[in-house]
Specification:
Largest sheet: 10 strands, mixed
Strand order of the largest sheet: 1-2-3-4-6-5-7-8-9-10
Structural class: alpha/beta
Order of helices and strands: EHEHHHEEEHEHEHEHHHHHHHHEHEHH
Distance between the termini: 46 Å
CATH superfamily of one domain: Alpha/Beta hydrolase fold, catalytic domain
Number of strands: 10
Helix content: 40-55%
CATH topology of one domain: Rossmann fold
CATH architecture of one domain: 3-Layer(aba) Sandwich
Length: about 425
């Protein structure tokens, strides 16, 4: 299904003038082979797509929900409509062609194959940038920001805003390898990303991430590799320790909170009480999710819902699927095909359970104060799970050089408003570059 090929970078170490290889030479050869960047191309057999459509059509549906809203989950009519389109009209080959038009590679890091997209900017002095996706996203989330970041002059930016963009698939996600043992957490992933960027020849770089990707860049910032210039995140961890304790026990908001802090407190209170069931399941019992590997519709319902009742992050996805704005959260540039591209990627790579294990490996809260000291830029989108107050953000990011509240967009900001998202990344790293 997925093809790789070796490059001339594979090196054989001659041990003797006669060409015989010593044990050391063999070990060095094997190391060079594992470190090679192997070109990667997607070629899904048609039989896999036929089987997908067959399974969708064979879905055994439950009865409809007993409420007139979305409070019990994605409504039956919504899922049946999506399934009809998925099985009859959706075309995977379109996104396959988009992906294959980009430079893709596989390289082995710390015993695991890591898949990544690597697009060079044509502009001199472009800043290398590693961008990390989250769940239920994938590299497909980031496709629309690659050109605005690598080619900013075509989108109203300056040549000095340009980036060389690297977009890896998280361990257990998409085309990356599936860990066969425990330990692939954000910290280990962050170290792997540093190895990847150095292997690509970059001696200095920036890092960007939202959702689980924010966990990776937070871990990287805490590790403080000398190559890291700074980070940008659209999913900041800012909850002060005292506030986190209050939220954990259901205490009311303290009276001394500012208006922004009180709003964030109330948003987080609802989030933790009603909208984290999916994350708790994956963080505790990911191996129990067998149905996601067996039923495309079961997988889609799990990836789609988020337990938020058309709040973020599901609202933009729902707006895209239904073709109308839901609860004031527009789809922006996000389309029904974009959503199905992502769901289909999870299905074809059978990564529902392996990706869920990343939550099991997560050993810190993405929401609590990050407590990092590298230069940081933060963009707050209005449709995110909560709007981080500047006061909390400044306490969590000790070298906060950029903070901006954006006027539109949500949890999938790069998907929903790619040009706006790219502008935020440029602005954030412009501030970091000035240090």
């Amino acid at each position: 299904m997925f093809q790789t090929s070796q490059t001339r970078r594979d090196v054989l170490i001659a041990a003797t003038a006669a060409g015989a290889f010593s044990l050391l030479g063999k070990q060095m050869s094997q190391a060079a082979e594992s470190a090679a960047m192997r070109p990667f191309r997607i070629d899904v057999p048609e039989t896999e797509l036929v089987d997908l459509r067959r399974r969708i059509k064979a879905t055994r549906w439950p009865e409809r929900e007993t409420v007139s809203d979305e409070s019990q989950g994605v409504p039956l009519a919504t899922m049946q409509g999506l399934a009809r389109y998925w099985s009859a009209e959706y075309d995977w080959r379109k996104v396959e062609a988009k992906l294959n038009a980009l430079p893709q590679f596989i390289t082995e890091i710390d015993g695991l194959d890591i898949h990544f997209i690597h697009v060079h900017s044509k502009h001199e002095n472009a800043l290398p940038l590693v961008v990390t996706h989250g769940w239920p996203g994938s590299i497909i989330e980031q496709l629309k920001i690659i050109d605005p970041l690598t080619n900013p002059t075509a989108y109203g930016g300056d040549a000095s805003d340009a980036f060389h963009v690297v977009v890896p698939s998280l361990p257990g996600f998409g085309f990356s390898g599936k860990p066969t043992a425990t330990g692939w957490n954000p910290e280990r992933t962050a170290r792997a990303w540093v190895v990847l960027m150095k292997r690509l020849g970059y001696t200095q770089f920036g890092a960007q991430g939202g959702d689980l990707g924010a966990g990776v860049v937070t871990a990287m910032a805490k590790q403080q590799p000398t190559e890291l210039l700074g980070i940008h995140t659209n999913f900041p961890g800012t909850i002060p320790p005292d506030i986190a304790k209050m939220l954990a026990v259901g205490s009311p908001a303290p009276s001394e909170l500012s208006a922004d802090e009180r709003r964030a407190f109330e948003q987080l209170k609802v989030l933790f009480a009603k909208r984290r069931a999916y994350a708790q399941m994956m963080a505790t019992r990911p191996q129990a999710l067998y149905g996601l590997a067996d039923s495309p519709v079961g997988l889609a319902g799990w990836l789609f819902d988020h337990g938020d009742g058309y709040g973020q992050p599901a609202a933009a996805m729902t707006s895209a699927v239904l073709g109308r704005t839901i609860n004031g959260h527009e789809a922006g540039d996000l389309t029904r095909d974009d959503v199905l591209d992502d769901f289909t990627l999870y299905w074809l790579t059978n990564t529902a359970v392996s990706s869920a294990r990343f939550y099991w490996e997560l050993d810190f809260s993405l929401y609590n104060a990050a407590d990092i000291s590298v230069p940081a830029a933060v963009s707050v989108f209005p449709g995110e799970n909560y709007q981080a107050p500047r006061s909390w953000t400044e306490r969590a990011y000790h070298k906060l050089v950029y903070f901006n509240k954006v006027d539109k967009g949500g949890h999938y900001a790069a998907w929903e408003h790619p040009q706006l998202f790219a502008q935020e990344v440029r602005a954030g790293f412009n501030a970091i570059r000035q240090i």
